[in-house]
Amino acid sequence: MIIDVVGAGSLGLLYSGKLAAADVEVRLWCRSVGQAKELRSKGITVLDVHGAMESAVDPEAFLTGSIEEFSKRWKQEPGQWIFLMTKQKDAEAVSSMTAGRLVKEGISVEQQPGVVCFQNGYGHMERIEGILPGWPLYAAITTEGAKRTKRHEVLHAGSGMTWIGVPEAHSRAKVSVHAERLVKMLQKAGFSADLSNDIDSRIYRKLLINAVINPLTALWNIPNGELLASDKRMQTMRMLLDEALEVYDACGIPYEDDIWEQILEVCSSTAGNTSSMLKDVQEGAATEVDWINGSITALGLKANKRAVTHELITGLVKGLTIREE
Ligand SMILES: NC(=O)C1=CN([C@@H]2O[C@H](COP(=O)(O)OP(=O)(O)OC[C@H]3O[C@@H](n4cnc5c(N)ncnc54)[C@H](OP(=O)(O)O)[C@@H]3O)[C@@H](O)[C@H]2O)C=CC1
Ligand SMILES: CC(C)(CO)C(=O)C(=O)O
Prior knowledge:
Elements: E1 2-6, H1 10-21, E2 25-30, H2 33-42, E3 44-47, E4 53-57, E5 63-66, H3 70-76, E6 81-84, H4 88-97, H5 99-104, E7 114-117, H6 124-131, E8 137-142, E9 145-150, E10 153-158, E11 161-165, H7 177-188, E12 192-195, H8 199-220, H9 231-251, H10 259-269, H11 276-282, H12 293-302, H13 308-321
Parallel strand pairs: 1-2, 1-6, 2-5, 3-10, 6-7, 7-8, 11-12
Antiparallel strand pairs: 3-4, 8-11, 9-10
Helix pairs in contact: 4-6, 8-9, 8-10, 8-11, 8-13, 9-12, 12-13
This protein binds NADPH dihydro-nicotinamide-adenine-dinucleotide phosphate and ketopantoate.
């Protein structure tokens, strides 16, 4: 089984490194030729949460190149899975540059590799299906924590669970026997992973967690656990959650009764973490707020329910990284 990992950032390096260390055939596709060159000479280093070596992967243990080389290589040796491991903003572009290019080059339906989308937030699956109509599209929800520290090195900040499944709207793909094999490969590489026949619930649950924790940690410049340090902060969290739940009710999206307690638990269990949104703000990079709080707003609009707090917080977070013209 060959897995093509697209995006050599935090998640891409973590999954490629651990899969390659477990002798799974991995090809890692980078945006830049320079990063691919560095990976070819240094391999991949995965550090554990204490900064100690978790996996040191030799350059010979995996193949890497620039994304421009993907389709040529794929045609020489077809892969069975594509892991899309970029941020939401780049997900459509990399879908077009990888699987989309194979479509243009006329690969048969039987040859189509499963495409697994790891993005946080909501809305990408629909957009990717627009580019890859009828493809076996899977969503992955992971609670792994990863942070790229060098172009060839990643810190495995926290171990979690990876769920893979086909969202209801894409059920044409159907979870296949190949997907069971994929999960076994992930487990062999040391990931806790399983198939989910209700991935939508997991997507919507993660969306609530991210919509409450991420923007507030980004605006207040605090690690996740600090959200619990004051009643005032928790009141603001509650306000965001309540409004999101009103949107879910209006859209008929189910959620668990103890979702508030679950969010508090995520804050405790990831207390020392810098949320991904805060990390982006600190690095001056665009955040995923449009696809997290922005999607709560968009879902609300579809059901004639305005989510003004999410609208406001989206603007506040965007203001942190937008530079004056
Ligand atoms: N990190 C984590 O712990 C978790 C992340 N996620 C989600 O996973 C997704 C990826 O996150 P993460 O890995 O942290 O993000 P990163 O920003 O660390 O990595 C994204 C990678 O995508 C690459 N990329 C962007 N455009 C292209 C392109 N056209 N061709 C090839 N590569 C490209 C970037 O390249 P370059 O380096 O050149 O910019 C970068 O290496 C996000 O949606 C995130 O929310 C979900 C759960 C946990
Ligand atoms: C769960 C949480 C908030 C952990 O940091 C996360 O997913 C993120 O930072 O994006």
